[in-house]
Amino acid sequence: MTNVKYANLTTLDVGRPSSSAGEEWQSFKILFHDFADLPSAVGQCTRSPEFTCNGHRWCIKLYPSGHTEARAGNLSLYLRLCSGGYATATFEVSVLDKYQSIKRIAKSATLRSFSSESKTWGWPQFVSRSYILNQANNYLDDNGTLAVVVSIQRDSASAAPFVPSNPIRGMIAGMFLDEKTADVCFEVGSADVHDGDEAAPSPVTFHAHSFILKTCAPMLASLFGSDDDEVATATITDVKPDIFHHMLHYVYGGSVPDAELNTHVKDIINAADKYSIVNLKLEAEAAYVKSTKITMDNVIDNLLYADSMNLALLKEAVMDFLAENHDEAVTKDFSNIPGHLMRDLLVAFGMSKRAGKGNGKEKDFKAMRVSELRMKLAKAGLDVDGSREAMRPENPAPNSVPKKNHFAPESQISLIFQKITTMTASTPPYAPSTTDGSTNPYHPDNLTESISTDGGRGINYLERLSSCLGLDISCVRW
């Protein structure tokens, strides 16, 4: 029996190899499904999808009943050069049996030249068609599929030339914590009061560049004033220095190691949410969902956490768990669950019932999975952070951002604000101004403008604040 040739197979030599050893080949398997039903008149061919090798595009041309009348009744197989220009190739074509062993193989005797005048080389009488269709010969698998493998010897001279990748990302990453070129810095430390003689740990300084922050992390950039005379400093006391290091490194194009991400996942989610590093938040959320086993003991805690931080993927995982374990879930006490979460649970039940029953039409945004919804929004240039409701546009348009017209008239919003403003608003995050005197865009008095200019962040904040006050803002949406 002929041995199968494996693509990219690593060979280890014992002793001195022969001069022909070490030749590298690239193989492509082509499956001709329903072979018996392929066009079978003499001269009719079926072409495979194109594949690339040695910098050129190729395909296989298969004539089930022969290329010409002289070869009628025989399978004809040819390798064709699909890209323009000139190419050479040493190649072989084999047909496998239903057990994926080589049934018949043919090899080019010499290096073949392909050009615009001679685009194909092959075998006009590879094997009898009737022989293939005879089930006793085991050419076709149980589904009637014929497997053809073409192998082409690699040619290093024909390979695509090496072109270095764009260095800009590496350059930006190299500026991370570069004190010489930095024009702003963060002093990150704990604001905890220590008793007795115990000294508070000194804050950790992180140097940064305002132009990078303004583009990649606007909320961090907003912590600084407009003083151009010296390096501006901002103090951060609500994020641990090691967590801030990961977050700032991410802003400069870096990544958080998996071990660190899993160890500090909640701290990273909280920090990324607070400072609107959206992609880092979503990456950490995905890691949390992957590493967390949801049980009846922690399902409510995870649901409340997902809702408080607008973690749509985690909320979906919780809802899936409740939908799958509804008989046991009805025994739990959900009295402390906000009422709007019941709507999400109904969506989860509805999606579980409709699973596998697609009608071929575009899915309803209300029932779309979170990852799919985020993918569509990202392609349309829309905000992918926030609750399912905040993410769900009626008709997403490319390169558009959420505008005020996603809401009812301001008169309806003002009714919500009238109730919100009755609360005590003397301390952050509800104070009219931040500690440095600048306007707090998320104070109730400023929320209308915030929603218009800050898109989903203002929307998400309004949802959170109203939920804490027990208000239903579903009427605010169209």
Automatic annotation (TrEMBL):
Limits of the BTB domain: 182-260
Family matches, as PROSITE patterns: BTB, MATH
Taxonomic lineage of the native organism: Eukaryota, Sar, Stramenopiles, Ochrophyta, Bacillariophyta
Source superkingdom: Eukaryota
SMART domains, alphabetized: BTB, MATH
Source organism: Skeletonema marinoi
Gene3D superfamilies: Apoptosis, Tumor Necrosis Factor Receptor Associated Protein 2, Chain A (2.60.210.10), Potassium Channel Kv1.1, Chain A (3.30.710.10)
Pfam families, A to Z: BTB (PF00651), MATH_2 (PF22486)
Record-annotated MATH domain positions: 25-150
Coiled coil: none
Protein name: BTB/POZ and MATH domain-containing protein
PANTHER family the record matches: BTB/POZ AND MATH DOMAIN-CONTAINING PROTEIN 1 (PTHR26379), OS07G0655300 PROTEIN (PTHR26379:SF187)
